[in-house]
Amino acid sequence: MIMILQGRLLEGRVEDSLKGIGLSLRRLGLLGHLRHDPGISFSALARRAGIKVQSLHPIIDALISDGYVATVGSGGQGRAAVIELTDRGVKVLERATQLIADYDHEVFAEDEWKDLGTALTRLEEALWRERMASSGGVTAPAAPPVAGRPSRG
Known about the structure:
MarR/SlyA-like; globular; MarR family transcriptional regulator
């Protein structure tokens, strides 16, 4: 229960800092997926994000309005339109990654919090290796996408 409560507290703080640059964790996650898989289709992006395509469309429309993503192709004749990051999207993603890295450093810099950060990083890397082994490593990037912290593997 402590992890759940602390996680919610930390998540709220990150959400607040992301709001300052016009993002949310959900939007940040979508931009991250687009960076790691340029040209992904709406349906594949929705699956990755764990939401329905119908729920994804308004979020993507907002990201398009903000100039963070663009659709490529018409999606006509049985072909799906794909979504790509714009230069502005890359810049806001880099800024968000830096905000989170700064926050991680601030929170996990000392004492027990530093130990917790190290333990969580190791756990994430172990889970990533497990996922890679079970999927054959074919569709995943070479390193876990740890926002703001390099792999310690």
